[in-house]
């Protein structure tokens, strides 16, 4: 948390599925950063030689979205690429065929997370881009990364009941209910038991998924990869570029995660952006006489703290018999930091809380978690947490506590106002070391031009990270003026034209190119 996507129900029709994403190790035989990936001819020929058996399927679409004609298949990959004769994983794949008669190939898509399924994302993207030249020239292909969605084995760490009781996905906000060492040991055990064993937990990192993408590229019949990834998807695309630079045709990286900053620095950077967005939301609210945060934006954070901190000891009931805790209230407001379009819903929720009600903030939190009306939670955030155990730097309690204190310092709207005794990294007892490495995707040789799209007011993946990614890849940068995380489905003509020109004709925008939301 909080790199992720936001469901269309929050965003409104104009931003059908505005791409958002979750914060962004392996056994001794897992490749570490800098090692070369296994390739065909090293026991992987049977995977690279497979043909996908696509069959018609009916993807679940958001209310109001047009139907699409899709087909689905399953891709087999080795669970451990260093042991291709061993256990296998199956990757769920969905394809919407190109509308035109002369397709360039497949456009592989990733929505972020890292725990969010790409199959439904591809179907929704095809619907949003129904008249775009991109869907005319490309087959839209989504896949659920290993451990995610319909892929098998699937990551699973908590029951729905545990999720309802605020199961922990990160150490922050610390000071409310900090993990104990016993809890982190138990977390490992229950994740392993419910996900298919510790071997599964050792092989779900981004470097594993990048290898799966290359097998998928071959199975789709594409000599080189065309890819569009949002949020965490920019990390995935960048790591693929690092590992398979000569197999890249085009990469669109939207809402970039910074490849140069380690976990502490990047998360502090992100929460700095979140506080900035909270203050801009408060300033917008202050122009209205009934603003629940008051008419002085400089005092808005303190007003908000006074409203939500009592929820730590006394959660507020909702009209449907649920409750709103402090953590849930913070998550509900955090959802609004993904885009200016969600600010009114968050302000309405804060106003309700001030009046003794809690339904709207709880609803925003539930949408954030993708909770269904009957209380069922998907595995998206559990997958995000587990994948991050391989991607993020492993912190000692001292380091995790220091990071939380730094976060509360730069984002006081999240601060519970209680001392942090000792924060713990939930991955501290993971049986394997992280496999990503920082910095990543630097000094790549033989990589064609890439396109990074970055919004100036993006709270979740601040603009600085987009600049750093574009520079690291030696690629092009399209700067977008706005207050939003992710742009590819924003319906903006300037962005759409630039992305289409790049993907179809490999024509990059001019140096200094800008669009405005």
TrEMBL record:
Alphabetically sorted, this entry's keywords are: Hydrolase, Signal
Transmembrane annotation, as ranges? none
Gene Ontology MF term list: hydrolase activity
Record flagged with keyword ATP-binding: no
Q: Where is the Peptidase S33 tripeptidyl aminopeptidase-like C-terminal domain?
A: 422-515
- Signal peptide coordinates: 1-24
Q: This protein's superkingdom? A: Bacteria
Q: Where is the AB hydrolase-1 domain?
A: 107-320
Q: Which family does it belong to?
A: Belongs to the peptidase S33 family.
| Annotated protein name in UniProt | Alpha/beta hydrolase
Species source reads Nonomuraea terrae
Q: What lineage does the source organism belong to?
A: Bacteria, Bacillati, Actinomycetota, Actinomycetes, Streptosporangiales
